[in-house]
């Protein structure tokens, strides 16, 4: 960033806030360079170095579960590694082009209204852990194509945005998440449709789909 000032009087100070997204952890150096003119017309420069350490703000761990219905469940465990609380504004899974995603982090109460599972107050305390769950469904054009599905390992990326107690914003996006390819075997049997209720000692209909996985 650059801060411009035409005149800086004696004992006067200038304040400004500049933002830069840091993408790498570990030691960093901030270099500040000041160019100025005194009584002469010759330009003078002053440079100062500020060393600082960038620590990991969030710890993210993931687990995958391959369901028989070809749905993929992603469990994301987040831990606040900072020393202050934060507000998680966005925790979303951006799926690969082969999947649709549905967040499963709300519950439906008796008033038929969805409520966030983490409570009314969005406060993520220091060292606190949260588990987020997402369900990925294959796109309709590949839903029954086992030869394609068993080779799909890329799931998507987690995108996380937070705000600290003093208003500082943070952004973290994981690298491409990958699952272990499912083992379908030679044949796969799926339930297409089944009635939600059935009477005792009476027939009910079930629709199956048998897929040759070769």
Automatic annotation (TrEMBL):
Domain Trafficking protein particle complex subunit 13 N-terminal, first and last residues per copy: 4-54
Recorded superkingdom: Eukaryota
Matching InterPro entries: TRAPPC13 (IPR010378), TRAPPC13_M (IPR055429), TRAPPC13_N (IPR055427)
Domain Trafficking protein particle complex subunit 13 middle: 58-182
GO cellular component: TRAPPIII protein complex
Protein name, entry field: Uncharacterized protein
Species assigned in the record: Oppiella nova
């Amino acid at each position: 960033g650059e801060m411009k000032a035409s005149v800086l009087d004696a004992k006067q100070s200038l304040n400004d806030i500049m933002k830069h997204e840091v993408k790498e952890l570990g030691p960093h150096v901030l270099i500040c360079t000041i160019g100025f003119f005194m009584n002469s017309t010759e330009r003078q420069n002053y440079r100062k170095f500020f060393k600082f350490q960038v620590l990991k703000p969030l710890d993210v761990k993931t687990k995958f579960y391959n369901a028989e219905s070809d749905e993929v469940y992603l469990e994301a465990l987040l831990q606040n590694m900072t020393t202050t609380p934060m507000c998680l504004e966005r925790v979303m899974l951006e799926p690969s082009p082969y999947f649709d995603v549905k967040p499963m982090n709300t519950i439906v109460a008796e008033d038929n209204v969805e409520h966030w599972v983490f409570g009314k107050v969005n406060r993520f305390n220091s060292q606190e852990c949260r588990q987020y769950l997402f369900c990925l469904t294959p796109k309709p054009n590949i839903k029954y194509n086992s030869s394609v599905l068993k080779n799909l390992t890329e799931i998507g990326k987690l995108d996380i945005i937070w705000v600290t107690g003093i208003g500082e914003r943070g952004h973290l996006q994981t690298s491409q998440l990958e699952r272990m390819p499912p083992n379908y075997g030679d044949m796969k049997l799926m339930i297409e449709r089944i009635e939600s209720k059935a009477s005792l000692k009476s027939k009910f209909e079930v629709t199956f789909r048998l897929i040759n996985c070769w």
